Amino acid sequence: MTSGPVLSFWDLCFNNLPQGPFERRTIAADEARSLIDAARSAGTLRCVSSDDLLAPNRERQRRGHDALRDVLLDNYDLPLRFEDFLSGSADREDGVQSVTPLQVARLQPGERMLGVSCDYVFSKNPGMADPENLFAIDAESVGFDLITALPQRGTAP
User: Fold this and answer.
1) Where does the source fall among the domains of life (predicted)?
2) Which residues lie across from 148 on neighbouring strands?
3) 157 within a domain of the structure (yes/no)
4) Vertex 107 angle, CA 67 and 68, to 5°
5) Is the pLDDT reported for residue 141 higher than 50?
6) Cα separations (Å) of 105 from 56, 75, 128, 138, 151?
């Protein structure tokens, strides 16, 4: 396999799935960390988002994204940066970057997608007036699902 896994928080869309067979399995945090570390070392880590996290009207989604990245770092030693979810190039003269859209990730046979999900619990700050701070990520609930596009029948792997 020449490319690293596509990584997405919470979301998956039909465009991501291959036309043919695929496999989905839950993996441990250690395996997820190994996949991410190997892809980062090889320069093939591709992170996508269903939300435009740079848009001013997506501040709530950006905070949720930041919170999950913090939980992944603090509890699973998975250092993902906001910049991992950006495309474009700092090498460009204008420096323009954008969030890599979830919809552009299309798995081909042999490629993988790592989905990271979590549950929420009531925040430990019970009298908070701001409803956006009412819930917090349950660090123990973080899950890692690996989807692998399998070879088409009748073709060589």
Assistant:
1) Bacteria
2) 23, 112
3) no
4) 5
5) yes
6) 24, 27, 39, 28, 18
pTM of the model: 0.85
Beta bridge partners of 7: 47, 114
Q: With a cut of 80, say whether residue 60 has pLDDT above it.
A: yes
- CA pair distance 22, 18, nearest whole angstrom: 7
Whether the per-residue pLDDT at 153 is higher than 50: the answer is yes
Distance CA 102, CA 97 (A): 15
> CA nearest 80: which of 89, 91, 69, 71?
69
Q: Count how many domains the chain has.
A: 1
E strands, the chain, are 6-9, 22-27, 46-48, 86-88, 97-99, 112-122, 135-149
Q: Is the model's pLDDT at 130 over the cut of 70?
A: no
Instruction: Tell me, rounded to whole angstroms, the distance of Cα 56 from its chain centroid.
Output: 21
Residue 83 belongs to domain with CATH number: 3.40.50.11170
Q: Which domain covers residue 112, as residue numbers?
A: 6-149
Query: What are 89-109's pLDDT values in tens digits?
Result: 655 667 778 899 999 999 999
Burial degree of 116 (CB within 10 A; 0-12, 13-18, 19+): buried
pLDDT bin (cut points 50, 70, 90) of residue 123 is confident
